[in-house]
Specification:
With 164 residues, the chain is an alpha+beta fold. The chain has helices at residues 3-13, 19-26, 30-42, 59-63, 82-89, 115-126; strands at residues 65-73, 94-99, 106-112, 132-140, 145-146, 149-150. The strands form 2 sheets. A 4-stranded antiparallel β-sheet has the order 2-3-1-4. A two-stranded antiparallel ribbon has the order 5-6. Strand 5 (145-146) and strand 6 (149-150) form a beta hairpin.
Amino acid sequence: MDSSEEILNLLRDNARISTQDISAMTKKTPEEVEKVIQRLENEGIIMKYAAIINPEKDLNSKEKVKAEIEIQVQPEREHGFDAIADRIYRFPQVKSLYLMSGGYDLKVIIEGDSLTDVASFVARKLSTIQGVRSIKTHFILKTYKENDIVYIEEKTDSREGVIA
């Protein structure tokens, strides 16, 4: 594993890790670490540093409605799926967009303020895009795990053990 990959793995686990800590873990000088991180940012490999918020505990997230939408599309000549995907991911409601294999072409994760808000977005925005053939909407009721983060706290048994 080269130093860039090693540094990326450390930042994936903790984006707030200090240059000094990375330096100690990789046996590189802090200056070398800063140079690698700067290069990774300049090349667009590191695009953003973000906090991961537990949606079950964040009041703003709890009030939002999330939906997963399966879309079948007719790809455009010379652009394939990219032109339609470009139109879709520009909507602020769209949080994620994936090209899929299987029974549908695009998977979209959207967020709205209410069921009505999400339904209106699907009916007025997504379904009217030229090339969209069908849409199936699934509302996300609860998030247990996402991006390797488990959001459910493990319950521990607080009773004392009995020794026989």
